[in-house]
Write a structure and sequence with these properties.
The complex is a heterotetramer of chains A (about 140), B (about 350), C (about 650) and D (about 350). With about 140 residues, chain A is α/β, with parallel strands linked by helices. Chain A has a single domain, classed as Rossmann fold (3-Layer(aba) Sandwich), CATH 3.40.50. Chain A has helices at about 1-5, 20-30, 50-60, 80-100, 115-130, and strands at about 10-15, 40-45, 65-70, 105-110. In chain A, strand 1 (about 10-15), helix 2 (about 20-30) and strand 2 (about 40-45) form a beta-alpha-beta unit. The longest helix of chain A has 19 residues, at about 80-100. With about 350 residues, chain B is of the alpha+beta class. Chain B contains 11 helices and 12 strands. Chain B is flat and about 65 Å long. Chain D is α/β, with parallel strands linked by helices and about 350 residues long. A 5-stranded mixed β-sheet of chain D has the order 2-1-3-4-8, sandwiched between helices. Chain D has a 3-stranded antiparallel β-sheet with strand order 5-6-7. The longest helix of chain D is centred in the last third of the chain and has 16 residues, at about 300-315. Chain D is globular. Classes of the chains: A alpha/beta (about 140), B alpha+beta (about 350), C alpha/beta (about 650), D alpha/beta (about 350). Chains A and C meet through helix 2, strand 2, helix 3 and helix 4 of A and helix 4, helix 5, helix 16 and helix 17 of C.
């Protein structure tokens, strides 16, 4: 379908400053190419990501939302990613429950050393979103 | 214009109203609500959960859109509603009586172009109540009646296998004329049956506001009564009573910003509700109606005093929705009676 | 509030950015933002003229905040914040939009790259709009340090710190300092005597006026943060007053209890009252409470009876001591990977299969056999010894994935020492690769390999078991492709190094991270190798990763110099980007208190209060609060909200 | 079996002796059979109290009202408020205590066990009465007895009970000062989360179709939020102006009001509101079901909260309102929390 090929998913990627943002820097330094669909927002820690951010991003028209942080045990703040894991699990289940496609929300652990993994995570995510088409379930209608 | 409509031909009448989007009560999710008609309709609902007020006064109305490019003057574009013509069937008399009250409000000081644009496109086809009333119906005590035609364009009365259909307004006549062929002339027996049924309908016992005529003065005298706080102790401050009310019309206006640069958005009107704690919240933090008592007094006094003072009629039409649906048992009949009985 | 005036500076980074991002368009789009009063592009914003132009633009245009769209903030955030300050505006009103690493370098399509660069830049502009100017927080410093672990790393760190005139508390779990190094016989590649090198340092620790030594002690609780830690140390009771003990040894002669000697790795036994080594510091006996018949003079009391010095006190009680320190060095050392995890190598149950440390004790002049190599089972001199390298190391499937780094060297040393003690013996070494990076290391290994009676076999051992009074070792020589079977008198396993037992607990107590293998995690693998992720806590020795003695000493010195640098400051400045409570919204539910990993929040009069000295600004509180009543400064929910909006506009 | 007289005597006694500032219970309302919240301050009012299957309300809500009122009037609490609490209501009180909303000594919990039954579901009852109006309702063992104009109608409670009560295994208020009725903790009338499981059995597409319809119906009257004791925030993510403004509130604070959600009752906004609410109630909702009951347009709000409760229980071993000193769901974690969803 040509229509689907033209479609460019809009992704908000919440990256923790210490691991995943650094990992994305490494992907950059290594010049690993990946789709330009994800706009990063760097936060101190995945633990700082309120589920409200996820809902808000979908509400504002994101086709997918990525949360990425340090591997368990590697959190710069020791426990932030543990807290995030629980919160993000809950919001993921809730989204799934109301019938939002599972692939619209993704969480990953990408360390500062995993530049290639970062690129892969984005590539896979954008690929999956391309299959799904635009997200209009939570998206605010611009004119009604 | 008075006609007889065989129940089997109700669908034909609806079909003939091609210029209208026809709405009728349908059972959905454990409740009656107005739905676009596609297929057979049955008019045997007690009443709908929500009143039909939203047809002329929707919960959200866009007034205008705005746009401002940095350094330039803002550009405003008014957006008048593109309201389809609606014919709404099965409107109960209490809800019918809500219509002129809303007309009054939206045309008193200022003619509200948004309301009027929608309002002139709605035709209300009423259905008289000829069964024992609901537990919390009290139309009779607020000057209404189960067979009132007030606010309706057409009144239908269920005569068993057929409806007695009466045009109340010119709009109503047009609705009937559009399908002249489906109607028959009423016989004398039909008319007699109608008369008897109407007489029986008004004779059913109902709950009542004891002294509706005395209410405005009594409420006024009890403005400072501690009784209000007592009666409103259980109030949770939700919007059920007013949002379901056929005559509540308060609204809030907000700017919904879609884009910050360039600035782009809409100014919208949404329903508001005097029972919400923030309804009268000032930006200073002061709230003149701080407690639930003051807020209940506002709602009840508006229905039974202020509106009467302004327009010479009670705003409440006795549909009973606010009583039935209140999660904590606040009962406007009880409140009015209790306050009126209080020696101020 | 006066209108914001933000400047946006778009860097081309030569063609690094400009090749895939239409920088002019980025600048144009940013100029359309309501708060942007000035935009500029430049080929290298971080160059001297680039930086000057930023400073000039801030002054000329009365900017109150700036966004530089360039490379990662890790590179030039500080540069441009310094410039902001130089131009007279607060450095925290400068933010970096990363359009190089996160954009131009990873996207080839110019249109898409430009679109993304605009989104990134716009979101940072929106964020900066709500950045508050602020100053770093000044914290006073406690000019004392603590070193946890009294091995060579801890000893070295403690001495270096003490020699700088800073009081240091050395906490050791065992009855003596010295750690693993004290157990070694000779050290590679020089083969000098381990104890001879170490003892003087141990004595120096004991005598140094600035060192407070706490042996038989463990850290129980740590609160506070960099510059001001409060540490509770639990000191177990030794029941012997070290000041009175004359180490006359009379007590051990009468003690009726015999238990395996853990200092000799179970090769010998000791009494319930004992001294770990002759060189122990403190030079004093210790009464092992668990082994003793009951500290009850009616039941035994023999040692007390014979102690002429009156050093034994059965009523001595454990103590908990609270120490305030400004910095902590963690040097908790290593243990060996448990042989019980390796059934293929006997699972620790085959006689005459020793580990490297046991072998050290066997060849040590101070060890059980006084330096004679006698195998444990029958005390005969082993004529054929198999050394197995990488026992548990470099085996991601079953054991430890990492290389334990020192085994190649010490196995070579073992083989050499064996041959010295048993000239007619034959040594076999199974290895995977020989890793001998280090001064004089390769030469050392080569010399060992050149010995005709030391046979290096490249390959793994598949199994070993006891047979006819010998240990039969099945292995493969991958160079010849042949299976090898050796009936050895003794086998020595070069077991993998693991973090010492209790590393997990101490990491948790100190709130420092561990890596995937359980070693203490450094803050940055390259640039901050001796710092833990928690400010004011430093790492030294094998607790951080397997390493040899010189490396350990070097790292200990580095950690000490970090401590000295830290404690030389009168006050510390901390990042002001910490949590802030909006009391009007706070209901005092305490969820932030519970979520905070740093115990930095408490409730007071029904409202949350942030302890500025403890808060690290992670934001866990903010994401947990249901009312947005707590935010990290300059990363507020409001700012994230607007950034989300900007990303999707 | 609970004797109403015992409850009345307790209330009367407490008020007479000044042991309670007020007793919050249930009384017969002015509109037919339904009970309504009652606020007693005088001993002689104790006889107004009722205990029947229409005592739906989670009265802990009024403890929240009381505290807000005291805070506004700058008064201190004084004697405790006594409150009648069912199992779920008492758990709500525990959550409020966990969150330090008031102190344990400020409330006197008169626990009432739902024993083998629960509260009636008006919609289910209507189906059984064939249009007849019930005038009163009463417990009788495992039955409910309704009086209508035509006489008495006895129905097995299970047939007309609310889903939440059918699925409830803890009908006894563990946290109490005084409790009436038998402790039937562990009873099982229907499997926990039965209604949720039925809903979840649908495919994602069907679930969405259903929710889209439900979310479209929401009129944003906020009855769900207003009736919920856990929704005690002064300001909600959906309000444009409910801002706890005081004279000390700065202009900057007033301006920094995040508008996560628009006030318009549009589907996207309704979803975001109700999902946010479900997230905020995760680990706090004790399934009193009041939001679901109060909703005038029958949005099955309970399913959303139930979903969170189920995940919390199954994945994190978490029971809301289990103990006052217990952890909160989203501010705590376990080392072995599920993580295999993370790539």
């Amino acid at each position: 379908m040509s229509e689907q090929q033209d479609y460019e998913p809009r992704v908000v990627a919440f990256l923790c400053k210490w691991c995943s943002s650094a990992g994305s820097d490494l992907a950059g330094v290594s010049r690993i190419q990946y789709p330009a669909n994800a706009t990063p927002i760097t936060v101190p820690c995945t633990g700082a990501i309120s589920p409200m951010y996820i809902l808000s991003a979908f509400n504002k028209g994101a086709d997918g939302v990525l949360v990425s942080g340090c591997h368990i045990g590697d959190c710069h703040y020791l426990e932030g990613n543990y807290l995030a894991r629980r919160k993000m699990y809950l919001i993921m289940k809730l989204l799934e429950f109301i019938g939002v496609e599972q692939n619209r929300f993704r969480m990953s652990w990408v360390s500062a050393a995993e530049g290639a993994k970062f690129a892969q995570v984005i590539t896979d995510f954008v690929g999956d979103l391309q299959q799904l088409g635009p997200q209009d379930k939570l998206k605010r209608a611009e004119n009604k | 214009m008075e006609k007889i409509l065989d129940k089997k031909r109700l669908g034909d009448w609806v079909d003939a109203l091609a210029d209208y989007e026809v709405l009728a009560p349908a059972w959905e999710e454990d409740a009656w609500g107005y739905q676009p008609v596609n297929g057979p309709i049955r008019l045997d609902h007690p009443n709908t959960k929500q009143s039909p007020k939203r047809l002329a006064f929707p919960q959200r109305e866009v007034f205008f859109t705005f746009e401002q490019i940095k350094g330039e003057a803002p550009r405003l574009t008014q957006t008048l509603p593109e309201a389809p013509r609606h014919a709404v069937f099965g409107v109960r008399p209490c809800d019918g009586r809500g219509v002129p009250r809303m007309d009054q409000v939206f045309n008193d000081y200022v003619e509200d172009v948004y309301y009027n644009t929608r309002r002139k496109n709605v035709a209300y086809v009423g259905l008289a109540c000829n069964k024992p009333p609901n537990a919390n119906c009290f139309c009779l005590s607020v000057g209404g009646s189960p067979v009132s035609t007030d606010g309706l364009d057409v009144q239908m009365t269920d005569l068993g296998d057929r409806y007695f259909v009466k045009a109340v307004t010119e709009t109503g006549k047009a609705l009937m004329t559009a399908a002249a062929g489906v109607f028959a002339e009423p016989s004398a027996a039909d008319k007699k049956q109608l008369k008897d049924m109407h007489a029986a309908a008004v004779a059913y016992p109902q709950r009542a506001v004891n002294d509706p005529d005395g209410a405005p003065a009594k409420l006024k005298a009890n403005f400072k009564s501690p009784l209000w706080d007592e009666l409103a102790r259980a109030c949770i401050g939700c919007g059920i009573c007013t949002f379901l009310c056929p005559t509540c019309h308060c609204f809030d206006i907000n700017d919904e910003v879609q884009s910050k640069a360039p600035l782009k958005g809409q100014r919208v009107r949404t329903w508001d509700n005097c029972q919400f704690p923030d309804f009268t919240m000032h930006s200073s933090g002061h709230n003149p109606r701080e407690g639930t008592g003051a807020r209940l007094r506002q709602r009840v006094s508006h229905k039974f005093q202020y509106f009467h003072e302004n327009f010479g009629m009670h705003q409440c039409t006795g549909c009973g929705r606010c009583i039935t649906e209140c999660p904590v048992g606040i009962d406007i009949i009880h409140v009015v009676n209790k306050v009126a009985a209080n020696a101020a | 509030m006066s209108k914001k005036r933000t400047g946006v500076f778009v860097c081309h980074c030569g063609t690094n950015i400009a090749a895939t991002v239409d920088v002019a368009k980025v600048a144009r789009e940013m100029a359309a933002e309501n708060t942007v009063a000035f935009t500029q592009e430049y080929v290298y914003m971080c160059s001297e003229p680039g930086q000057e132009s930023v400073v000039q633009a801030i002054k000329d245009n009365k900017l109150d905040s700036i966004v530089v769209t360039c490379c990662s903030p890790n590179l030039h955030e500080k540069t441009f914040r310094d410039n902001a300050q130089r131009a007279g505006i607060n450095n925290f009103t400068c933010e970096i939009a990363n359009i190089r690493e996160q954009c131009s370098w990873v996207h080839a399509d110019k249109a898409k790259g430009t679109e993304k660069a605009i989104k990134i830049s716009r979101s940072v502009v929106r964020r900066v709009n709500r950045n508050q100017p602020m100053d770093a927080i000044a914290v006073s410093v406690t000019r004392r340090a603590m070193v946890i672990g009294g091995g060579i790393a801890g000893i070295q760190a403690a001495l270096d710190i003490a020699n700088a005139g800073i009081e240091v508390i050395l906490v050791e779990k065992q009855a003596t300092i010295g750690g693993r190094m004290l157990q070694l016989s000779e050290t590679f590649p020089t083969l000098d005597c381990s104890q001879c090198v170490l003892s003087p340092k141990m004595v120096e620790v004991k005598r140094h006026p600035k060192v407070k030594l706490m042996t038989y002690s463990e850290v129980q609780e740590v609160s506070g943060s960099v510059g001001n830690f409060r540490v509770k140390v639990h000191k177990r009771s030794t029941f012997v007053d070290p000041d009175k003990c004359k180490i006359c040894d009379h007590c051990t002669e009468v003690c009726p209890v015999v238990v395996p000697n853990e200092y000799e790795l179970g090769l010998t036994a000791r009494r319930a009252i004992y001294i770990p080594y002759a060189q122990a510091i403190p030079a004093s006996f210790t009464l092992d409470e668990d082994a003793c018949l009951g500290l009850n003079p009616i039941r035994c009391g023999k040692c007390k009876d014979v102690c002429e010095a009156g050093a034994i006190d059965y009523d001595m009680r454990p103590q908990t001591v609270t120490e305030d320190v400004g910095a902590i060095v963690v040097a908790t050392g290593f243990d060996l990977y448990g042989p019980e995890n390796m059934p293929e190598l006997g699972g620790g149950r085959v006689e005459d299969v020793l580990d490297g440390l046991q072998f050290e004790r066997l060849i040590s002049a101070s060890g059980a056999t006084k330096g004679h190599i006698l195998r444990p089972s029958d005390h005969k001199e082993p004529k054929e010894v198999v050394f197995i390298q990488c026992a548990g190391s470099r085996d991601p499937a079953k054991h430890c994935a990492y290389c334990s780094k020192i085994c190649c060297m010490y196995t070579a040393k073992h083989a050499r020492l064996y041959k010295k003690h048993v000239p007619d013996g034959r040594a076999y070494v199974f290895y995977i690769d020989i890793r001998s990076g280090g001064k004089g290391y390769e030469e050392f290994v080569q010399r060992t390999m050149e010995d005709d009676d030391t046979l290096y076999l490249r390959g793994r051992v598949s199994k070993l078991y006891r047979k006819d009074g010998k240990v039969r070792v099945h292995g493969t020589d991958t160079l010849t492709g042949q299976n090898v079977e050796i009936d050895a008198d003794m086998v020595v396993l070069a077991l993998a190094m693991t973090p010492s037992k209790g590393t997990a607990e101490i990491a948790k107590t100190l709130k420092i991270g561990r890596d995937k293998d359980g070693f203490l995690a450094e803050a940055h693998p390259k640039l901050r190798p001796v710092e833990s992720v928690t400010g004011g806590i430093y790492l030294a020795g094998a607790a951080q990763a397997p390493k040899d003695i010189p490396e350990t000493v070097a790292q200990a010195g580095a950690a000490a110099s970090k401590v000295i640098a830290l404690l030389s400051q009168a006050t510390l400045s901390r990042s002001p980007l910490i949590a802030k409570v909006r009391p009007s919204h706070c209901t005092g539910c305490g969820m932030c208190v519970e979520a905070c990993p740093f115990f930095a929040i408490r409730l007071e009069n029904g409202k949350a209060i942030v302890n500025e000295a403890l808060c690290e600004g992670c934001g866990s509180c903010s994401a947990t609060c249901l009312r947005a009543a707590i935010d990290v400064k300059n990363v507020t929910q409001m700012q994230i909200h607007e950034m989300i909006e900007a990303c999707l506009a | 079996m609970i004797k109403l007289q015992d409850i009345r005597d307790t209330a009367r006694d407490m008020l007479a002796k000044g042991e309670a500032r007020a007793v919050i219970g249930y009384r017969r309302g002015s509109r037919g059979m339904l009970a309504e919240p009652a606020f007693l301050t005088r001993p002689e009012e104790a006889d107004e109290l009722v205990w029947d299957p229409t005592c739906f309300h989670n009265l802990s809500l009024y403890l929240v009202h009381d505290r807000k009122h005291l805070a506004h009037a700058r008064k201190t609490a004084g004697a405790p408020v006594a409150v009648i609490a069912k199992g779920c209501d008492a758990r709500s009180i525990v959550v409020l205590l966990q969150e330090h909303y008031f102190q344990r000594e400020d409330v006197y919990i008169i626990g009432v066990s739902c024993e083998g039954t629960g509260v009636v579901d008006e919609r289910k009852l209507a189906g059984h009465l064939n249009g007849a109006q019930a005038i009163s309702a009463a417990f009788d063992g495992d039955d409910f007895v309704f009086t209508t104009a035509e006489g008495e109608k006895r129905l097995p409670a299970r047939e007309v009970m609310a889903d939440r009560c059918l699925e409830c295994c803890s009908p006894f208020p563990k946290e109490h000062n005084l409790a009436f009725g038998e402790d039937k903790t562990g009873r099982q009338l229907e499997a926990p989360f039965a209604a949720l499981d039925r809903f979840e059995a649908q495919g994602a597409g069907e679930r969405w179709d259903n929710w889209a319809r439900h979310f479209d119906r929401c009129i944003r009257c906020f009855a769900c939020r207003s009736v919920c004791p856990m929704c005690y925030c002064d300001e909600c993510v959906v309000d444009s102006i409910t801002f706890p403004v005081t004279t000390a509130t700065t202009a900057e604070e007033k301006a920094s009001r995040i508008r996560w959600i628009e006030r318009s009752a549009a589907r996207s906004e309704n979803i975001t509101y109700l999902m946010t609410r479900a997230m905020h109630l995760a680990g706090r909702c004790t399934d009193c079901g009041e939001c679901d009951r109060a909703c005038p347009v029958n949005v099955p709000i309970r399913l959303l909260n139930n979903k969170m409760e189920k995940e919390a229980r199954e994945q994190f071993g978490f029971e809301p309102g289990a103990s006052i000193g217990g952890p909160s769901l989203v501010a705590s974690f376990l080392d072995n929390d599920p993580g295999n969803f993370i790539r």
